[in-house]
Design brief:
The radius of gyration is 21 Å and the shape is globular. Helix 8 packs parallel to helix 10. The chain is of the alpha/beta class. 35% of the residues lie in helices and 15% in strands. Helix 4 links the parallel strand 3 and strand 4. The chain starts with 5 loop residues before the first strand and ends with a helix. It folds into two domains: 243 residues, Aspartate Aminotransferase, domain 2; 102 residues, Aspartate Aminotransferase, domain 1 (Alpha-Beta Complex). The strands form four sheets. A seven-stranded mixed beta sheet has the order 2-10-9-8-5-3-4, with helices on both faces. The protein has a three-stranded antiparallel beta sheet with strand order 11-12-14, covered by helices on one side.
């Protein structure tokens, strides 16, 4: 068997080994079904139990209120960037507010503009998106159809520590890169959505948690596949869903509950992993330059640069020799990005911290 490396990719990302092993063990034939999850009908009772269990796990982990639907859709967050305003903004006669904190906030607002009038409530472009705004900095329209934000900007390595204060305005959140990293108050959100390939499962399935009154706002003239109302009424089974992806969501959430316990414990574990790297950055006396301001640091994506770009290839080579992969940062930020999602073992983070210390010691001038 090929030896597994420590995969610090921002997505598709590392998955829990027990979940992968269970999927491997039962790939040829699900217990009691005699056929693979890749072959099974989405209308079958076997798959019905799988998708119901996946939803039940999410409801338990996040304490999702009864007045919210949990949908398993396709198209990733990219589709939600358009689908949300298509359902909630279009024909509302209102504008929508967007808080722009990085790459994905900018991508979301571009898609939203195709569906209706948009306002920018805050934009961190001036400081190259190295921090999140305070509530006092937000320019919100009290009559907005909704306020949209990205909870964790993967590329920039910045994260909201708590939800923006928006009053009674529906709050929409792209939580793709920190979904399930901790427990959040779902009741504060109108829509909370996330593509799976960061913390939840493989690429191909998107979880949308949506308040039922917002579902009722869906325009009647929308294509069925783009209507929250249709997808909710069909319980995510209007068409063939990404069955394997939903199955993996069940296995990953099973792992969280059986091995970690709950999302409060997961958050404590995630904070400790992130602190291992931030401690090295802070102790390096400028050798490692973190992109994010301290108050906005992400516990999912740790971004940093070296004092000399010529050192980047040697650092990546040394890391690769130790089995630490996918650490190169995005071109808009440069340097490095260590994505340490839920499934990243603490041993991998400890090893990266060790390599960082050693590299600093050898290359400091």
């Amino acid at each position: 068997m090929e030896k597994r490396v420590y995969n610090f990719s921002p997505g598709p990302a590392v998955l829990p080994l027990p979940a992968l092993q269970e999927a491997q063990r039962d790939l040829l034939a699900l217990p009691g079904a005699g056929m693979s999850i890749l072959e099974i009908s989405h209308r079958s009772s076997t798959f019905g139990k799988i998708i119901e269990a996946a939803e039940a796990n999410l409801r338990k982990l996040l304490s999702i209120p009864e007045d919210y639907h949990v949908l398993f859709l396709q198209g990733g967050a990219q589709l939600q960037f358009a689908m949300a305003p298509m359902n909630i903004l279009r024909n509302s006669g209102k504008t929508a507010d967007y808080i722009i904190c990085g790459t994905w906030g900018n991508t979301a607002i571009k898609q939203a503009k195709t569906q209706g009038p948009i306002r920018v409530a805050w934009d961190g472009k001036e400081t190259n998106y190295n921090r999140m705004p305070s509530n006092s900095e937000l320019d919100l329209n009290p009559d907005a159809a909704y306020v949209h934000f990205t909870s964790n900007e993967t590329i920039q390595g910045i994260q909201f520590q708590t939800e923006p204060a928006v009053g009674i305005i529906p709050l929409l959140c792209d939580a793709s890169s920190d979904f399930l990293h901790k427990k959040v108050p779902v009741e504060k959100y109108g829509i909370l959505y996330a593509c799976a390939q960061k913390n939840l499962g493989p690429a191909g399935v998107t979880v949308v948690i949506i308040r039922k009154d917002l579902v009722e706002r869906s325009c009647e003239d929308l294509p069925s596949m783009l209507s929250y109302r249709v997808m909710a009424e069909s319980k995510s089974l209007y068409n063939t869903p990404p069955c394997f992806g939903v199955y993996m969501v069940k296995l990953v959430t099973d792992w969280i509950m059986s091995e970690v316990g709950d999302l409060d414990k997961m958050y404590e574990r995630n904070k400790k992993k992130a602190q291992l790297l931030y401690d090295v950055i802070d102790a390096s006396e400028g050798f490692y330059d973190g992109h994010a301001e301290r108050a906005s640091r992400s516990v999912m994506n740790v971004t940093f640069r070296l004092p000399d770009p010529e050192l980047e290839k040697p650092f990546l080579a040394e890391a690769a020799e130790r089995g630490l992969m996918e650490l190169k940062g995005h071109r808009s930020v440069g340097g490095f990005r260590a994505s340490i999602y839920n499934a990243m073992p603490v041993e991998g983070v400890e090893l990266l911290a060790e390599v960082m210390k050693s590299f600093c010691k050898k290359n400091r001038k």
